[in-house]
Amino acid sequence: MSPGFQGKPRSAAVTLPPGQYLTEDFPVLSAGPTPRIQLDQWEFVITTEAGVKHRWSWAELLELPSETPTVDLHCVTKWSKLGTTWRGVALDSLFEQVDTAADFALAHSYGGYTTNLPLEDLLDGQAWLVYEYEGEELGAEHGGPVRLLVPHLYLWKSAKWVNGIQLLVQDEPGFWESAGYHDYGDPWREQRYQGD
User: What is the pLDDT of residue 12?
Assistant: First the structure.
């Protein structure tokens, strides 16, 4: 750290993960260009470790029961945004008909982005496919039409423009994990990079 540099001040009224600062805006960070997906061409596919595919179209996704989670977001670039409200489908609903012995998942996005997660972190009310943010249609810059939302992990695990989950018996690193980011990414343990 440079002499005299203290970083951005924290609010004394909130508890943030170590090394994070509070922001009121919603920074836009992406690993590549923003894909534009037509809703009539959008689909989401869960592929089991045996190769069995479960597919949902945009219309079929909207037919599933929706939830409106209010969650805090923590980005590996050190900003946190508190009390964000989303609307989408819990991954529990999608996995009801999926028969798997996998322990890991690799989320895939339009544009080629991937990120790995333990399957248990996507279930039991911990993750959603979201299509609205603060009562509005989710904009493409924030991952619309649909992004993965896994708020207990750093935000790079909440893949924008998500279009599928590949179930795996063994863990496989995604885009940022292959470049040195932590495989898990718990903000409360500051798991930013491999070895943290």
Answer: 52
DSSP character at residue 29? -
pLDDT tens profile 134-149: 999 999 999 999 999 9
The 3-state DSSP class for residue 162 equals strand
Answer whether 0.70 is exceeded by the pTM.
Answer: yes
CA neighbor of 163 nearest in space, from 131, 193, 189, 136: 131
Please identify which residue in the block is written with the tokens 């496989």: 172
Rounded Cα gap, residues 169 and 51, in angstroms: 12
Q: Which residue has the tokens 């079929």?
A: 60
Q: How far apart are CA 31 and CA 111, in angstroms?
A: 10
pLDDT tens digit sequence for 22-52: 999 888 877 778 888 999 999 999 999 999 9
Which runs of consecutive H residues, i.e. helices, occur in 89-189? 91-95, 175-178
Q: How far apart are alpha carbons 167 and 144 in whole angstroms?
A: 23
Alpha-carbon distance of 5 to 30, in angstroms, equals 27
